[in-house]
Specification:
Blueprint: H1 3-24, H2 30-42, H3 44-55, H4 60-69, H5 73-78, H6 86-90, H7 99-107, E1 113-121, H8 124-137, E2 141-146, H9 153-167, E3 171-177, H10 186-194, E4 198-202, E5 223-227, E6 231-235, E7 253-254, E8 257-261, H11 265-280, H12 286-291, E9 304-311, H13 319-329, E10 334-338, E11 342-343, H14 346-357, E12 361-367, H15 373-388, E13 392-396, E14 399-400, E15 404-407, E16 411-415, E17 419-420, H16 421-426, E18 429-435, H17 437-452, E19 454-457, H18 459-463, H19 467-479
Parallel strand pairs: 2-3, 3-4, 7-14, 10-12, 11-17, 12-13
Antiparallel strand pairs: 1-8, 1-9, 2-5, 5-6, 6-8, 9-18, 10-15, 13-19, 15-16, 16-18
C-alpha cells in the first residue's frame, strides 16, 4: 500500500468522523449539513481542506473566552444615572408602537436608549472629515474598531492622527480584524504602539504568519468608533481608499454610516470593550470603566431612541437576522432593503414573501457593479425569486455597500450586517435600530434618490441571462450555504 492510498484512506475516515460530528453534535441547519456532506463525499481531499478552513466552527475554548470577557450592557446602564427603565422606555413616545420589537432586542441584551442625535453619511469622504475632527478634539479616549484598516492614503492619514493624539496623552485603543486588514503589515500598527497607543488584532494568525489563520472564516466585520464615551460612529464604511470612492472600477461607491451623540453611544462603547477584552486578554474590572469616564453621564442630544443589536459565531442565536425578520413581519406599509450581497435563508425569504403577499411595499436594492462576482451570481439567483413574488428590485448604477432596512415611517436599521448567511452566522456584526419618524423620513428620501440612480428590473431581466450565467448562478447558490 503506497503513501497516497494510506493518506486517502485517512482523509476518508476523518471526513466520515466530521460528517458524524455535523449530524449528531453540531447545531447546524440541515441544508448546511447536506452541502458539506456532498463536498466531503465527492471531493474528499479538497473537501477536507475546505472544511478545516471554512467549515469547522469556533472551538469551545474560544466561545468560553469570548463570553467570559463580555460586559453586560444592562449592568453598565444600571449603574449610570439618568437612564430610564425598560418599562418607562417602552411607554415613551414612538416606542409605544414597537413594544414587541423593543422587547425582542432587549432579550438579546440590547437596552433602548433615548435622546440621541444622529447624522447620516452616504459617502466615505464626508464621514472621514468629521471623524478626523472628532479625533483631534478628543479629550480623554479614542476607541476604534474596523474590519478593514488599510495601509493606504486613507489609513495612513487616520493612523497619523491616532499616533499624534496618543503622544499627547489621549487613551487610544485600536482593534483591527486579522483577515480584513491582512494586507496591512504589522509594522503599520506598531507605529501606534510606539506612540503610546494600544492595538488588538482580532483572531490573529498562527505564528504571526498572515496567511496561516485557521479562523479566517470568522471575521470581526464591525466598524465602531467611540470618542470620550460621548460620540459614536458605526455603519458600512471602512478605513480604506476604495471606501472613499477612489476605485474607478467601483464608482460611484455608495455607502451608509452614522455619527451619534447621546446615550446610545454606551452600547457602542460596551461592544468595543467586549471585543477589546477578548482580543487583548484585558482583565480590567467593569467598574473601572465607569470610574474612568468610559460611560459619562448621558446628555439629551436629540429625539432618536436606539437599540444596538449584535451577533456572531460565538452564539447559536442569530440575533440580527431575527431582529430583521421581526421588523419585516411587523411592517404595515413598506420595507426598503439596501445590501451589497443578498443571500437569504428560508426564514428571511419567507418573511419577505409574507410581507409582499400581505400588500406591503417591499423593495430591494443591490449594486449593479459587483465587487465579488461569485457572491453576486448567487445574489442574482435569489433576486430572480424575489422578483417572481412581486418584490421590486433595483440595481444601483455603481457599487452599493450600504446595509440598511427601513420599515414603515418610524424605524430603520443602519449597521455593518449584510443580508447573507455569512453576516448572519459567521461574522461578528452590529446594527443600530433607530426609532424615529424624522430619521426614517430622512433615509426614505435618500433611498428614493438612490432609485433615480438605479435600474429597476423585472423577471424578464433575469430570464434573458445566458445559459452559462444561469448555470453559474445555480452552482454559486448551492455553494453559498457552505460559507
Amino acid at each position: 500500500m503506497n503513501w497516497f492510498t494510506i493518506s486517502f484512506t485517512v482523509v476518508v475516515c476523518v471526513n466520515f468522523l466530521l460528517s458524524i460530528g455535523m449530524v449528531f453534535y453540531e447545531k447546524r441547519k440541515p441544508e448546511n449539513i447536506i452541502a458539506w456532506l456532498t463536498v466531503l463525499t465527492f471531493l474528499p481531499i479538497i473537501g477536507f481542506l475546505l472544511y478545516i478552513v471554512f467549515g469547522s466552527g469556533l472551538s469551545v475554548r474560544t466561545r468560553r473566552m469570548i463570553k467570559k470577557k463580555m460586559i453586560s450592557e444592562r449592568d453598565i446602564i444600571r449603574n449610570v444615572k439618568g437612564i430610564q427603565t425598560l418599562e418607562e422606555a417602552k411607554l415613551d413616545g414612538i416606542l409605544k408602537d414597537d413594544q414587541e420589537l423593543v422587547t425582542l432586542c432587549y432579550s438579546f441584551g440590547s437596552y433602548p436608549l433615548p435622546g440621541n442625535d444622529i447624522k447620516i453619511y452616504t459617502n466615505g469622504p464626508d464621514k472621514m472629515e468629521d471623524l478626523k475632527k472628532d479625533i483631534l478634539n478628543a479629550k480623554k479616549s479614542i476607541n476604534m474598531e474596523y474590519y478593514i484598516f488599510a495601509n493606504d492614503k486613507t489609513g495612513k492619514e487616520i493612523m497619523q492622527l491616532l499616533c499624534k493624539r496618543a503622544r499627547e496623552g489621549i487613551d487610544v485603543k485600536l482593534i483591527y480584524d486579522s483577515i480584513g486588514s491582512r494586507k496591512a503589515p504589522h509594522r503599520f500598527f506598531n507605529k501606534l504602539e510606539k506612540a503610546g497607543g494600544q492595538v488588538g488584532e482580532f483572531f490573529p494568525p498562527l505564528f504571526n504568519i498572515r496567511h496561516l489563520n485557521l479562523k479566517l472564516n470568522y471575521r470581526n466585520h464591525r466598524k465602531i468608533v467611540v470618542i470620550d464615551g460621548k460620540i459614536g460612529y458605526t455603519g458600512g464604511i471602512n478605513v480604506r481608499d476604495d471606501h472613499m470612492g477612489i476605485d474607478k472600477k467601483l464608482q460611484p461607491w455608495r455607502d451608509t454610516h452614522l455619527r451619534m451623540e447621546g446615550g446610545g453611544v454606551y452600547s457602542l462603547q460596551n461592544i468595543f470593550l467586549d471585543d477589546w477584552r477578548y482580543c487583548t486578554n484585558d482583565n480590567t474590572p467593569p467598574r473601572l470603566y465607569l470610574e474612568n469616564g468610559y460611560f459619562p453621564s448621558p446628555e439629551i442630544k436629540g429625539n432618536n431612541t436606539v437599540q444596538l443589536v449584535t451577533s456572531g459565531p460565538d452564539s447559536q442565536v442569530q440575533s440580527i437576522k431575527e431582529t430583521f425578520v421581526k421588523m419585516i413581519l411587523s411592517a404595515k406599509e413598506r420595507v426598503y432593503i439596501q445590501t451589497p450581497y443578498f443571500i437569504p435563508d428560508d426564514v428571511f425569504f419567507s418573511a419577505l414573501r409574507i410581507a409582499v403577499k400581505s400588500g406591503i411595499d417591499v423593495r430591494i436594492m443591490v449594486p449593479k457593479i459587483p465587487d465579488k462576482k461569485t457572491v453576486y451570481l448567487a445574489t442574482l439567483s435569489y433576486l430572480k425569486e424575489m422578483s417572481e413574488i412581486g418584490i421590486k428590485i433595483y440595481l444601483y448604477n455603481g457599487f452599493l455597500h450600504s446595509k440598511t432596512i427601513l420599515v414603515d415611517s418610524n424605524k430603520i436599521s443602519i449597521g455593518t450586517c449584510n443580508t447573507d448567511n455569512r453576516s448572519f452566522g459567521l461574522n461578528f456584526e452590529n446594527t443600530m435600530i433607530i426609532y424615529s419618524k424624522q430619521t426614517n423620513k430622512q433615509y426614505a428620501d435618500i433611498f428614493n434618490e438612490d432609485i433615480k440612480n438605479s435600474q429597476e428590473v423585472n423577471i424578464n431581466y433575469f430570464q434573458k441571462k445566458k445559459w452559462i450565467t444561469k448555470m453559474l448562478q445555480a452552482i454559486m447558490r448551492l455553494l453559498s450555504s457552505l460559507f
